[in-house]
């Protein structure tokens, strides 16, 4: 479990105990239910990380809502959009092995994460990872309608492994993954993915990718 779960859960359990002492058991139902929710929400399950070369794993749990091709300033790309509801695990993981070369936090709005505009306008933390073979990955932790805090643990210069835990977005959020046009997608809309273990795409060795989380 993420440390925040103990903070919220134990705090509410303490509040429930005070309510029981002052007013009796019936009045403690709400803080007890909230404590159970927070202890469940901040769960952090172990995952089996695939080890084959050329794989891009999902940075987070969620539902694939869109896979499209689009033109960017860097040429044609494929985009995979993943929505995280309050019922998904919100621990974020590195999509590849590499070194953190840049971390940039931006304040922003709290639009619904299902809104495409949230990718550019919402609060977000932008992280760039340089892979061992020159692959570059930039992923953005994008806050959603209910999220009010983004957590990212590694610092610039830190080494991360594929599937390694790197942070957390509290409550609803969104993950956008941009891949080269040559990438072979392994998911489609309507599929649920798990952070660190679900393969989103396969890439030829040395091909660069950009992941927006």
Describe the structure using short key phrases.
alpha+beta, 3 helices, single chain, 213 residues, nine-stranded antiparallel β-sheet, 2 domains, Glucose Permease (Domain IIA), 15 strands, elongated, transmembrane
Written description of the protein model:
- The protein is α+β, with helices and mostly antiparallel strands and 213 residues long.
- The chain folds into two domains: 3-41; 55-212, Glucose Permease (Domain IIA).
- Helix content is 18%, strand content 38%.
- Strands 2, 3, 5, 6, 7, 9, 11, 13 and 15 form a nine-stranded antiparallel β-sheet that branches.
- It is elongated, with a radius of gyration of 19 Å.
Topology of helices and strands:
Blueprint: H1 3-23, H2 29-41, E1 55-57, E2 62-72, E3 75-84, E4 91-93, E5 98-106, H3 118-121, E6 124-131, E7 136-143, E8 150-152, E9 159-160, E10 165-169, E11 173-180, E12 184-185, E13 192-193, E14 199-202, E15 210-212
Antiparallel strand pairs: 1-14, 2-3, 2-13, 3-11, 4-10, 5-6, 5-9, 6-7, 7-11, 8-10, 11-15, 12-14
Helix pairs in contact: 1-2
Concise overview:
It is built from three helices and 15 strands.
Extract low-pLDDT stretches: none
Q: What structural class should be given to the helix and strand makeup? A: alpha+beta
Largest sheet composition? 9 strands, antiparallel
The structural domain count equals 2
Shape designation: elongated
Please give the radius of gyration in angstroms: 19 Å
What would the average pLDDT be, to the nearest integer?
Answer: 82
Beginning-to-end CA distance, first to last residue: 21 Å
What's the CATH topology label of the largest domain?
Glucose Permease (Domain IIA)
**β-sheet strand percentage:** 35-45%
User: What's the total helix number?
Assistant: 3
Would you list the SSEs in sequence order as H and E? HHEEEEEHEEEEEEEEEE
């Amino acid at each position: 479990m993420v440390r925040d779960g103990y903070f919220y859960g134990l705090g509410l359990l303490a509040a429930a105990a005070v309510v029981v002492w002052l007013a009796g058991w019936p009045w403690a139902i709400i803080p007890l239910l909230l404590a159970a929710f927070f202890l469940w929400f901040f769960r952090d399950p172990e995952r089996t990380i695939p080890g084959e070369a050329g794989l891009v794993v999902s940075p987070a749990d969620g539902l694939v809502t869109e896979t499209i091709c689009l033109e960017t300033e860097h040429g044609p790309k494929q985009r995979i959009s993943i929505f995280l509801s309050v019922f998904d695990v919100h621990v974020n993981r590195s999509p590849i092995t590499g070194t953190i070369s840049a971390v940039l936090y931006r304040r922003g709005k709290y639009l619904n994460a299902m809104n495409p505009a949230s990718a550019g306008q919402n609060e977000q933390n932008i992280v760039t990872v340089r892979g061992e073979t020159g692959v570059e990955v930039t992923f953005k932790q994008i806050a959603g309608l209910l999220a009010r805090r983004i957590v990212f643990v590694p610092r610039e210069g830190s080494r991360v492994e594929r599937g390694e835990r790197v942070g957390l977005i509290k409550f609803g959020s969104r993950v956008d993954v941009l891949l080269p046009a040559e990438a072979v997608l392994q998911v489609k809309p309507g599929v649920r993915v798990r952070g660190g273990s679900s393969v989103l795409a396969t890439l030829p060795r040395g091909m660069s990718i950009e992941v927006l989380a």
